[in-house]
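[step 3/7] inverse_fold.run input=structure_tokens len=454
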């Protein structure tokens, strides 16, 4: 729906990041620019937490920082260009820049454009980032005042947090270089995930957004795993903490059906973010993805039968090499059948190192644009009809932001940054971010809702 590569609200240098500490005399400070997906944002939080524990202050702007870390995105060429632009901006504004993240897997690409960067490290290479910071700005800790908050340094608002449960991916999709950059699936131990989640909830987090490259594969890389699908028990345990639990990046494996009753019971949110990517079996085959679009419709029907309130979000690629008009029309027809609630769409781009680059019959740019327009018109019409049906109903919302003219909230059907909002423009003055309240919906748009406190 909102397909920006690097949403401004995920950039702590542009958004309302939770950085409010006062710098003490002699304290070295580090700034952070975090680009790309929420998984990269979690990496940024971990880096800043480690630096904070070593006595560094965290600066929300370039001018107040002794050095700046730029956590880059390298998934698409457009994201790479945006990362290079951010590095250049940091160099101009500050001068001391350390680069990390996915684009860091291509150091020559970065130093070729910006030879003055101090260091380049790859994704989730925390120790190398810390070493680079130490070299540029030596630490000067004061053990009496540099106490790390139990929740660590957060770059998201206080009331929600991303919870990364694994790294890497075992899929070999031809358009994707994530496994090359981040490696094979490596799941975090169940106890470690739960310990982090418990600390977050104790610190006031009301919503946990579970993320990885392949959430439903969590734990399947363990040799002696206690169950076939460890995501089941993790979801159940997370759901016992009393916070909203939202599942992202879930592949539609058969065992996902076993999670739906937990949603129906209220254990985790009735929300699945599933990257379907396309619907035509030949296109999916060229992508090297499971080509089972018809069976997927059966799965969707089964999920909705078990949990009628379930909300489905997905992303798709149009203009993939070899995509014919007939294949694209199959995707539109599938959308009519699937009636997905939240949909994003990307036009195919070549990415350096991706196997899809070598496929024949690349689709002309003007055809990709025309298909994207038709796809989004279809998705928007579905969204508008679904939201219109909510007028007159009551729903729970979580408050994200309170301003003079309105409170910006989200329903259980809306993830931050990528989905819609519900706005309360009367009687909202006493609300605070993180409040969960009941609202009666009285107006609907294409992607957003308006309501009043019930």
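[step 3/7] decode complete -> sequence:
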């Amino acid at each position: 729906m909102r397909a920006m590569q690097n949403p401004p609200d995920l950039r702590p240098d542009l958004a309302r990041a939770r950085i409010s500490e006062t710098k003490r005399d002699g304290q070295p400070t580090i700034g952070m620019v975090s680009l790309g997906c929420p998984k990269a944002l979690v990496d940024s939080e971990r880096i800043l937490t480690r630096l904070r524990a070593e006595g560094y202050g965290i600066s929300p702007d370039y001018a107040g920082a002794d050095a700046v870390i730029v956590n880059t995105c390298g998934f698409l060429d457009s994201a790479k260009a945006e990362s290079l632009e951010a590095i250049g901006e940091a160099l101009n504004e500050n001068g001391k820049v350390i680069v990390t993240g996915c684009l860091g897997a291509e150091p020559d690409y970065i130093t070729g454009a910006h030879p003055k960067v101090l260091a380049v490290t790859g994704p989730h290479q925390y120790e190398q980032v810390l070493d680079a910071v130490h070299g540029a700005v030596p630490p000067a800790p004061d053990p009496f005042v540099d106490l790390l908050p139990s929740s660590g340094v957060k770059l998201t608002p206080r009331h929600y947090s991303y919870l990364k449960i694994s790294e890497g991916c075992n899929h070999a999709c031809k358009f994707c270089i994530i496994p090359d950059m981040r490696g094979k699936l490596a799941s975090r131990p169940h106890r470690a995930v739960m310990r982090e989640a418990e600390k977050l909830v104790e610190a006031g987090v009301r919503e946990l957004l579970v993320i990885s490259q392949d959430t439903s594969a969590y734990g399947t890389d363990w040799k002696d795993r206690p169950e076939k699908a460890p995501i089941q028990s993790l979801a159940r345990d997370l759901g016992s903490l009393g916070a909203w639990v939202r599942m992202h990046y879930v592949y539609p494996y058969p065992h996902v059906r076993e999670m739906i009753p937990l949603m129906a019971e209220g254990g985790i949110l009735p929300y699945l973010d599933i990257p379907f990517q396309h619907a035509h079996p030949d296109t999916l085959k060229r992508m090297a993805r499971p080509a089972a679009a018809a069976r997927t419709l059966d799965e969707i029907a089964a999920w909705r039968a078990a949990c009628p309130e379930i909300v489905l979000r997905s992303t798709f690629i149009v203009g993939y090499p070899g995509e014919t008009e007939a294949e694209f029309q199959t995707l539109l027809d599938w959308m009519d059948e699937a009636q997905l609630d939240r949909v994003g769409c990307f036009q195919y781009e070549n990415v350096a190192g991706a196997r899809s680059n070598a496929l024949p019959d690349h689709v002309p740019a003007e055809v990709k644009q025309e298909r994207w327009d038709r796809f989004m018109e279809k998705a928007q019409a579905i969204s508008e009809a679904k939201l219109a049906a909510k007028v007159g109903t009551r729903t729970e919302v979580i408050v994200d932001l309170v301003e003079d003219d309105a409170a910006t909230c989200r329903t259980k059907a809306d993830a931050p940054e990528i989905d819609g909002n519900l706005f309360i423009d009367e009687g909202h003055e006493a609300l605070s971010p993180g409040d969960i309240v009941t609202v009666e919906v009285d107006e609907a748009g294409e992607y957003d809702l308006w309501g009043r406190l019930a």
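[step 4/7] annotate
The chain has twelve helices and 18 strands.
Confidence is low (pLDDT under 50) at residues 1-20, 143-150.
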